[in-house]
Amino acid sequence: MRPFKYTRVSDANAAARAVTANPNAEFLAGGTNILDLMKEDVERPNELVDLTRLNLADIKAGPNGGVTIGALAKNTDTANHPLIRKSYPLLTQAILAGASGQLRNMATNGGNLMQRTRCQYFYDTAMPCNKREPGTGCGAREGLNRIHAIFGWSEKCVATYPGDMANALYALEAQVRVRNASGRERSIPIVDFHRLPGDTPEKDNNLERGELIVAIDLPKSNFANNYYYLKVRDRASYAFALVAVAAALDMDGGRIRQARVVMGSVAHKPWRSREAEAALSGKPASEQTFRSASEAALAGAKPLAHNAYKIELGKRAVVRALMRAARLI
Amino acid sequence: MEDNLDETSQPELSADEEALVKEMPALTDVGQARRTFLGQSLTSGVGLFALMLLEKEQALAALSAPADAVFAPAAAPENTIRIAMKVNGAAKTLELDSRVVLLDALRERLELTGTKKGCDQGQCGACTVLVDGRRVLSCLTLAATLEGREVTTIEGLARGEQLHPMQAAFIKYDGFQCGYCTPGQICSAVGLLEEARRGEASHVTENVTVNTTSLTDEEIRERMSGNICRCGAYPGIVAAIKEVHSGKETARTWRFVNDDELARVRKEWQTDETV
Lengths: 329, 275
Fold this sequence. Notes:
Strand content of chain A: 15-25%
Number of helices of chain A: 12
Oligomer: heterodimer
Helix content of chain B: 25-40%
Radius of gyration of chain B: 24 Å
CATH class of the largest domain in chain B: Mainly Alpha
CATH superfamily of the domain at 226-325 in chain A: CO dehydrogenase flavoprotein, C-terminal domain
Number of domains of chain B: 3
CATH architecture of the domain at 226-325 in chain A: 2-Layer Sandwich
CATH superfamily of the largest domain in chain B: [2Fe-2S]-binding domain
Number of strands of chain B: 5
Distance between the termini of chain B: 33 Å
Helix content of chain A: 25-40%
Structural class of chain A: alpha+beta
Order of helices and strands of chain A: EHEHEEEHHHHHHHEEEEEEEHHH
CATH class of the domain at 226-325 in chain A: Alpha Beta
Shape of chain A: globular
Strand order of the largest sheet of chain A: 4-5-8-6-7
CATH topology of the domain at 226-325 in chain A: Enolase-like, domain 1
Distance between the termini of chain A: 49 Å
Strand content of chain B: 5-15%
Largest sheet of chain B: 5 strands, mixed
CATH architecture of the largest domain in chain B: Orthogonal Bundle
Radius of gyration of chain A: 19 Å
Strand order of the largest sheet of chain B: 2-1-5-3-4
Largest sheet of chain A: 5 strands, antiparallel
């Protein structure tokens, strides 16, 4: 690991100021991703600004029946908080599908949103990667791309966003509250938080330099009864998804009033399918309805050489997640 | 239990091996003495293995000139930070390079080598310890972040000679083979007990909206998935955790061999060899 200056701060504004002042500084929260990447020489900050002493770990009822979760609340504490388990069990399921008990005890909600792709070419400094070193090319585009994107990729980058928590946050239409060095706060709708790679895959999200995530705001939810987070991976636990589905239904008897369908590990950001949601809205909850929704969800997919399987897998995963959400299986 | 291995019996050695064993004291003094020993072994015509070792050492030495240097000098610490924490109940103050993770601080500075380095990047669980009572990976925990925290390692679980119930259960159920992942497994299991007591849910919990305090085998396996065991001792690990978690003891299905039985088996072996 390269040498770096360790800076401990006592409030969020000071943290934002420290990272704004030094273009090679990074925030340190749980450390589960950035330290790994520093050991691999992928991330090379010359300063880490330690956020772990900041008072940003509260989870509490917010305005209009919503809930606010602190950026520094641990994944474990968020998933198991009574307010989340009761009103946003989809989020609980998604968080618990990720990583391991140890890692969830360390990882924070803000850090979870900031985690980087697990594309092997991004991790391997002997390989070209436009995300790691802009202009060097994409090793995965013509390389081994079994785990890569089927939606929204570009010639510059075919990596996926690997997380689980964010898939549920997309379904729940969360807002990410961020603060800059001058103390100004703004809210970013979660759907606009991460980016598609385009010509600038080195930018994972739309944060400005030095902006610090301080909280995630969840609006009141009608999805506390019919929800399911399905994660398909190479082993039963402790692995990243090949395809994940966050499904939520607002039911009126046997009829679907409103639906949310978000797929994970299929694009550079969680992939919300408005097409699938439209195909579900107002329809009876049935396997037939869910099959047509799954066709709509995967209709725009563009596979690479080794990941066409994600299309059929994605369809079946959407159907199964919706069947579980509707309690039909 | 008493170890009854007969230390007086020696395997048959070839003349070359005899010569090597005579030189063995040189090995206890690593570095230049070791290289001298390897050189001597080579000139006396002993072993491809010694040759390979020597080549490797020379290659390593070439990387860190001058050639006669035994070890490259340790890099001077940079960005030194001072950190005070509790480790297994004792107050410790360390001056560390900012890059040092808890795992290396424990092993290299505090001589607590029970915590093991497996993958060193959060994929195996061998380095699991408890920080403020919660299980975490010490390989991805920057020591600098631990000011004022309490760390418990495998060395801190027993009370004197009395093993922690989880340690005793791992022995009872044969929850290990090579033992390398075991300190991490046990620390993880101890953390898991507390999580279950608080009613925390897991990925396999059917209904996450209600508290789960009683764990099935499936729940234990999922909650322990962050600890990889290459030997595949999982059935014993699950059985050990299940017993401590449930508090329901099951009878041990094995016992240590006694002296008479051991003598009898030895006799049988000798008889076999002479036949």
